[in-house]
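Consider the following assembly input.
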Amino acid sequence: MNNNFINNSFKLANIFLLSIVSVVNIPAQPPQQPGFSTTASPEISPDNKVTFRLYSKEAEVITVSGDWSAPGASEQLVKNDTGLWKVTLGPLKPEYYNYYFSVDGIRTIDPSNPLTVRDGARYASVLVVPGRESELYTVKNIPHGNLTKEWYNSPTLKMDRRMYVYTPAVYNKNQDKYPVLYLHHGGGGDEDAWATMGRAVQIADNLIVQGIAKPMIIVMPNGNANEVAAITEVQRATRSQNAIPPPLATGGGYEASIVNDIIPYIEANYRVLASQEYRAIAGLSMGGGQTFNIGLRNTDKFAWIGIFSSGMFGGVQGGYGAFDPEKQIPGLLTKSGAFNQSLKLFYITCGEQDPRYEYTQKAVNTFKENKLDVIFKGFPGSHEWKVWRLSLTDFLSRLFK
Amino acid sequence: MNNNFINNSFKLANIFLLSIVSVVNIPAQPPQQPGFSTTASPEISPDNKVTFRLYSKEAEVITVSGDWSAPGASEQLVKNDTGLWKVTLGPLKPEYYNYYFSVDGIRTIDPSNPLTVRDGARYASVLVVPGRESELYTVKNIPHGNLTKEWYNSPTLKMDRRMYVYTPAVYNKNQDKYPVLYLHHGGGGDEDAWATMGRAVQIADNLIVQGIAKPMIIVMPNGNANEVAAITEVQRATRSQNAIPPPLATGGGYEASIVNDIIPYIEANYRVLASQEYRAIAGLSMGGGQTFNIGLRNTDKFAWIGIFSSGMFGGVQGGYGAFDPEKQIPGLLTKSGAFNQSLKLFYITCGEQDPRYEYTQKAVNTFKENKLDVIFKGFPGSHEWKVWRLSLTDFLSRLFK
């Protein structure tokens, strides 16, 4: 991992003293509102042990599952004679975790915790264990950029569509033009994902204020070519709100639309440095595959390319057909010098425990053997947001320099 | 209720045919992912009966509660031998409802429904029963305005704070200047409330496209003077994420800050018609009281005032002291002619089943006896969003005309 980032994060922690640091003792309380409990959950002790609490006289089995352990793993809560269920886990490393309860087999968010996050159609509660590693994901007392939920017309996809646009804090303070990163979610995600699970706004705000990242605009489109907007914005045309969604059309349609529709819209409506050397593109998983194709097929438009945890290099078991870089992007291996000349950064990451790691490494080795300049980084974790937040952090710190 | 609004809503329903109209038959399915069910819930039949479903072999009692009935009321779900719990309610009138399950006494959202909403620190699932009354709250295939989560400096409150800003669809299409409505949430709410529970963005988009409302900017500040932003944006400074919040300071601090900080910020950063006749202020409940004081004490700044379901006229039982309009706003009764001359609209609403209704009527009668021009409207409902969405709809249709 980038040592620069680590050192500067220490600096951040020292400079900005406000944060989640004081410890308040709130005793577990009996239900205050008829029928439902409000109690201290989650509660984080000074040594980062975390206590989850929940009230029910009738439930038989309550468990908690979180991304501090493997998917599907769970810990049982234990009930006392007042009906208070409780478990203490950890110590947990500072991180921005998702978790949920299972109450007699029904998945629930923590009713005492106001922080939640949506992953596709499902909700989880959020646990922020404070410390250096989660510092960058937290709203600090610094200048903040704005986030706009923005509609644009896509002639390519024949609809008005929604995207999110982040402008850095300084954008409203001067008349300068700024570089742009086009940042893509993964399969099952939408335009909301990077700003919520990905903490992209907080990461950008915190890196920019420290001078680690350049002030930039970050555009977060919806990469599902059949969607107008996230399912929470535009309900599907059915009387069953959770109707099975149609198969995702993630092919050429979206890839053409970013070049034909999104970039022109952004450059007409924002103060943007509108040239190749000031345009970056990145994405995770499915969005990493889109980025690979869009970025490398349009090196006249993008100089900075970031691919996080893509399955396209062979996926989890050498799947997705044999990955043939030269077939995918003609000249990528045979004329690598031309790509090296066009691109300022060709950057690939993967979680070190992600089954995609092995095939990604193979692809990277092939690129290197063919003298294609590439930077490859592994981050601890599997196919999960922890890895993508670190990937974004490191990628942002390299852009437009 | 405004007949104009009703007639035009019929028009809307006819003009825009897309919407939630087709019926898809999705059978109740057994759990597809290990441990958790995904099934059709809620499912709305063509006659607007609504079926809720949930899987649990172990649960003892599961109920559903929604704002289609009185607070605290609930209906039991019944289990079959596969562990599928089910209840069919209604027919329910077209509306944008909130609901939650109780599983053995634990409040949960519907795990099969991707639509949720936050009310203060609590989440509920959302049920949209399609039809004329919920039409205006739905994202239609029309030009959409943008919503920006925006940070501004408040010298008055000595912090950077967050608000939401809606710009109408036409804003990015020309260089015109637009009027502004400053719209306030209630107690327990924050800058997020009108854009989520209040459906303010959809109401504005739909009314503007029909020509019922003028294109306008809508600013949704955080009216809690002690808050930087919603609890979901800035976690409170504690290791218990749900620590009991400090008492809300909703007095003079916020009221001074809108005039000193927010209006100047908006007028410096947006293309705004920056004069009294193009400024409106409104709010619900606590925000209605703020609006009463801010609006009537600054008639040089605001020409349009909307107060929805305020308790300040005597509250639920003639509380909040004896309401003395002349003491609250000197001259309001004795020099009502001056107020009539300054204001283009002094508009008050309340739910007809809200215990505040009686004292609001009394205050309105006092205003009228003193020849203060006021429009008072009752809407069916108690102290709830259904009333505030209708209040906003009717208020928007009267502004800037």
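Chain B has two domains: 19-130, 146-398. Ask yourself how this observation constrains the way the partners meet.
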